[in-house]
Design a protein that fits this description.
This protein is of the alpha+beta class. It has 2 domains: 188 residues, 2-Layer Sandwich (Chloramphenicol Acetyltransferase), CATH 3.30.559; 187 residues, 2-Layer Sandwich (Chloramphenicol Acetyltransferase), CATH 3.30.559.10. The protein contains 11 helices and 15 strands. A 6-stranded mixed beta sheet has the order 1-6-7-8-3-13, sandwiched between helices. Strands 9-15-14-12-10-11 form a 6-stranded mixed beta sheet. Strands 2-5-4 form a 3-stranded antiparallel beta sheet, with no helix packed on it. The chain is globular and about 60 Å long. The protein starts with a strand and ends with a helix.
């Protein structure tokens, strides 16, 4: 498919309420996340006349784009930090209304070809998906926009919204809150039904940003073979139930779909790593935990907080090198659940000043590591701009090894976007838990 960017502009907030913040100070949490753009793609069929957009069959492409632009400008009146820039000190956001980067592109092809292929196959041509995302650096620097959006229109009238937001400003919860707010403004025509976000975090001194703080680095390991491959594996509702039937404890049979998928992927990666090293090494899974509603500390956190509010959980599986049957699903589920509980306790210690971070975490050594991130249960499939809910929501090709978990459209399954080297991917996709549980 040929993709042609037709124009690029910056969309600014339509209004600037006096009560809003002029500057947002980054927190210690913001400092520790990677300075990258986080992408998400939403796929929509051509509007139909039965939807709230009038006479959709006759709706011109320009009118549809103008509708998106106007509602985006409205939404930015509430989500105004997205239109700002990093401060010169690198420790703050200057809410200066310089705007969100906005591109419009024409795709020669049919949306149905991409969506149906994506739903039915693990091979979703991630290079093509990446072409739908605004071109530019992966890292959000001090001069660049904090959000970039590309509206991709297809010959059939369908479109794909590709949205990127700087991780230093927002976590998955916050990004999806923005998308839902924009969609509501577009569908309703006003901000009356949009939930206003909160950006002020009344944090104790222990959470204040610090100059020259070493950043927590995602674990890296030399890729097995050359070239990184991204594939999508779908754990549908039946697959989740099959995996639950493999666990022995009653408690773990009630595990969440995310926990079950994480355990199955981790178990499969252990076998991949064993094939690489010829013996079993300790393996570590690192995953962010959303702290909203989980911490019992005195930190004042509004439910509509649209900033990073997470803590990294670390869990390691130690088994003897000769143990080829190590780590059954029960072991891994227990480790994941313990890590979640441990992350909450560590977070409470950190904000109380009892456990201050003074440097990065060193993950070098004989430990295999993988980062897993979950976007599940954040209601992204409710993003209706006025012509229906998305047919599909996807990630893009991963640039570093790791796993992203997303809801399937029905809400009961999990789509796992896995990035591995080519040789490792061949081993991974043929692991028993993957063959048994995915399509």
């Amino acid at each position: 498919m040929r993709i042609r960017v037709q124009y690029r502009k910056f969309i600014r907030p339509s209004a600037s309420p006096q009560a809003r913040l002029k500057t947002i100070k980054l927190s210690l949490i913001d400092q520790q996340v990677q300075p990258v753009y986080v992408p998400i793609l939403l796929y929509y069929k051509a509007p139909e006349s039965s939807t709230s957009v009038s006479d959709c069959k006759d709706e011109t492409r320009e009118k549809l784009i103008n509708l998106l632009e106007g509602s985006l400008s409205q939404a930015l009146s509430l989500f105004y930090p997205l239109a700002g820039r990093f401060g010169e000190d690198g420790l703050s956001i200057d809410c200066n209304d310089r705007g969100v980067e906005y591109l419009v592109a024409q795709v020669d092809g049919l949306l149905s070809q991409m969506v149906e292929h994506g739903k039915q196959s693990a091979d979703v041509h991630p290079e093509l998906l990446n072409a739908l995302v605004p071109a530019g650096p992966d890292v959000a620097d001090h001069s660049g926009p904090l959000a970039r959006i590309q509206v991709n229109t297809f010959e059939c009238g369908g479109l794909v919204l590709a949205i990127q937001v700087a991780h230093k400003l927002a976590d998955a919860f916050s990004i999806i809150a923005f998308v839902l707010g924009w969609a509501t403004a577009c569908r309703v025509g006003t901000l009356a039904e949009v939930t206003s976000p909160a950006y002020e975090l009344l944090s104790p001194p222990s959470m204040e940003p610090r100059a020259n703080l070493p950043q927590l680095k995602e674990p890296s390991r030399p890729p097995m073979g050359s070239g990184l491959v991204t594939r999508r594996f779908v754990f549908d509702q039946k697959a989740i139930m099959r995996l639950k039937n493999l666990v022995s404890s009653e408690k773990n049979r009630g595990a969440s779909k995310v926990g079950i998928a994480m355990a199955a992927i981790w178990r499969s990666l252990i076998d991949v790593w064993r094939s690489e090293h010829r013996y079993t090494r300790p393996s570590m899974v690192i995953f962010p935990v959303n702290m909203r509603g989980k911490s019992s500390c005195c930190l004042q956190v509004p439910g509509n907080l649209c900033r990073n509010f997470l803590h990294l959980a670390f869990t390691v599986c130690y088994k003897p090198p000769e143990d080829v049957n190590c780590c059954v699903l029960d072991d891994l589920l227990n480790a994941i659940n313990d890590a979640k509980a441990g992350a909450v306790k560590a977070f409470e210690k950190q904000i109380s000043g009892m456990d201050l971070i003074t440097g990065g975490i060193n993950l070098e050594g004989e430990v295999d590591t993988v980062v897993m991130t979950s976007w599940c249960n954040f209601r992204i499939y409710e993003a209706d701009f006025g012509w229906g809910k998305p047919e599909w929501v996807s990630s893009v090709r991963k640039r570093t090894p790791g796993v992203i978990l997303m809801d399937s459209k029905c809400g009961e399954g999990v789509e796992a976007w896995v990035g591995l080297s080519g040789e490792a991917m061949l081993l991974f996709q043929n692991q028993p838990h993957i063959l048994l549980s995915t399509c």
